[in-house]
């Protein structure tokens, strides 16, 4: 029997203000990641208060052309405004892999921001700089405490979103990471990095669609 769904008060924002920094191919990847976030949140045991902010430009055009049903999405706030216009500054925490601060636990009174940007190789550190310039909180997920990655600690937007949902259910970072990341190339538990055969990787990666938010 399915457990009762108990919505979380935590707000999770995908910041879509990087639209002009992406080529259409990457905008389409971001759109797919957002679709995945929406689907996972709809079936989560503790769904978050989901926001898309600064929604417009290429992303909106692509959604109108390829996913007309988005206008009927439920339990999501899709806003043209920047998140700073919607949420108190002291509540905001930008999730960025360049932050020196490591997230220990989630505060469900906060609003966590995921940068909606694909192809960070050309824009390294941009989300961290943005948080510092705006004077808002920032942190990285404690990925390095639990996971040995062969590649850079940069995750797709939907990976970050799904890890947050998994943590809200399991209250354990390691379990949350490995419920989401087993298919990601090179992700093995720390201490077992030399025996990656125990963690056979299957399926394909999300086309390396990365967000700075790990």
Q: In words, what does this structure look like?
A:
With 214 residues, this protein is of the alpha/beta class. 32% of the residues lie in helices and 14% in strands. The chain is built from 7 helices and 8 strands; from the N terminus they run βαβαβαββαβαβααβ. The strands form 2 sheets. The protein has a 6-stranded parallel beta sheet with strand order 3-2-1-5-4-6, with helices on both faces. The model is unreliable at 193-208 (pLDDT under 50).
Number of strands: 8
Task: Write the element-wise H/E pattern from the N-terminal end onward.
Answer: EHEHEHEEHEHEHHE
* Model regions low in confidence, pLDDT < 50 over at least 5 residues: 193-208
Distance between the termini: 34 Å
The total of helices stands at 7
- Round the Cα radius of gyration to an integer and report it: 17 Å
Rough outline = globular
Order of strands, main sheet, comes to: 3-2-1-5-4-6
* Biggest sheet character: 6 strands, parallel
Average pLDDT figure: 86
Structural class, judged by helices and strands? alpha/beta
Classify the beta-strand content into a percent band.
5-15%
Q: What oligomeric state best describes the polypeptide chains here?
A: single chain
Q: Helix fraction?
A: 25-40%
């Amino acid at each position: 029997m399915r457990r009762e769904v108990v919505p979380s008060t935590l707000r999770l924002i995908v910041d879509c203000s990087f639209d002009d920094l992406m080529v259409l191919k990457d905008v389409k990847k971001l759109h797919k990641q957002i679709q995945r976030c929406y689907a996972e949140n709809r079936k989560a045991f503790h769904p978050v208060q989901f926001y898309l902010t600064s929604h417009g430009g290429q992303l909106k055009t692509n959604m109108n052309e390829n996913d007309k049903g988005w206008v009927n999405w439920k339990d999501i706030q899709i806003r043209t405004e920047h998140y700073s216009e919607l949420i108190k500054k002291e509540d905001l925490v930008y999730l960025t892999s360049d932050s020196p601060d490591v997230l220990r636990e989630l505060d469900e009174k906060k609003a966590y921001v995921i940068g909606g940007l694909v192809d960070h190789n050309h824009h390294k550190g941009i989300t961290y700089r943005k948080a510092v310039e705006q004077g808002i909180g920032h942190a990285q997920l404690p990925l390095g405490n639990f996971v040995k990655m062969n590649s850079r600690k940069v995750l797709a937007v939907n990976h970050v979103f799904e890890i947050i949902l998994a943590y809200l259910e399991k209250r354990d970072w390691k379990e949350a990471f490995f419920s989401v990341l087993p298919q990601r190339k090179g992700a093995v538990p720390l201490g077992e990095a030399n025996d990656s055969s125990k963690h056979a990787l299957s399926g394909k990666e999300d086309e390396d669609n990365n967000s700075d938010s790990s």
